[in-house]
Specification:
35% of the residues lie in helices and 32% in strands.
Length: 224
């Protein structure tokens, strides 16, 4: 389980980096960016040394707050409860969040099965596609830098339960694949095939707010 957070700039005790990506896992975090010379730089730390995050610690906590709030709303929509970890213990918060991701994903799967959709195949082109989750990862790279002109396809060949994946392509390139019953699959279908479920238009609204809040947390402003 991991959270990938892109930042435009980071002033750390290890130096000033730009084009920064912080990859957070339960046992450690990795900071990747470009140093003062514009060269690739990568640093990995255990959480015991999390003070190294310095000035960007509040950004990381803000992002986790945004993810927790969005997950709680999605959970309520699907009839389950998620309270979030809270506090500044980031490994504990990651464990709590991804336990919630599993619970909400399971609820989404049960909801899909209850619709008795039978076999189906859907395909749609999405001008700007946001991907907040892929498996046990919050892929916020695809929030700050969404996939442009994406082709989203999903198919289920089972009559009794929904089973399959959601595929994303951009041009000739295959970008990603996620399970249709995962939280990532739910967000992709909300943007591409909201007619499949009565909850998906609301999920799309939740995603719109999530995108705005993540960009605000990492210091980006909407382009007009």
């Amino acid at each position: 389980m991991e959270v990938v957070v892109p930042l435009t700039r980071a002033d750390l005790p290890i130096g000033t980096l730009t084009d920064v990506v912080v990859n957070m896992r339960e046992n450690a975090f990795t900071v990747v960016g470009r140093d003062e010379r514009g060269e690739y730089a990568e640093y990995t730390f255990l959480w015991e040394s999390e003070h190294v995050l310095g000035p960007i610690l509040h950004v990381i906590l803000s992002v986790l707050d945004v993810l927790d709030e969005a997950l709680a709303k999605a959970a309520a929509l699907l009839g389950v409860e998620y309270m979030g970890g809270g506090g500044e213990n980031i490994p504990a918060r990651l464990r709590s969040h991804f336990a919630g991701v599993d619970a909400v994903g399971s609820a989404w799967g049960r909801h899909l099965d209850s619709l008795r959709l039978g076999t189906f195949r859907v395909s749609a082109r999405v001008a700007t596609l946001y991907v907040p989750y892929m498996g046990h990862a919050a892929t916020l790279n695809y929030i700050v830098f969404p996939i442009v002109d994406a082709e989203v396809e999903a198919e289920s060949k089972s009559r009794n339960v929904v089973s399959g994946s959601v595929y994303v392509r951009s041009g000739e390139a295959a970008m990603l694949r996620v399970g249709i019953k995962t939280l990532g699959g739910m967000y992709l279908l909300a943007q591409s095939s909201p007619h499949l479920s009565p909850v998906l238009p609301t999920v799309a609204n939740l995603l719109e707010r999530l995108v705005e809040d993540v960009k605000s947390a990492v210091g980006l402003r909407p382009q007009i």
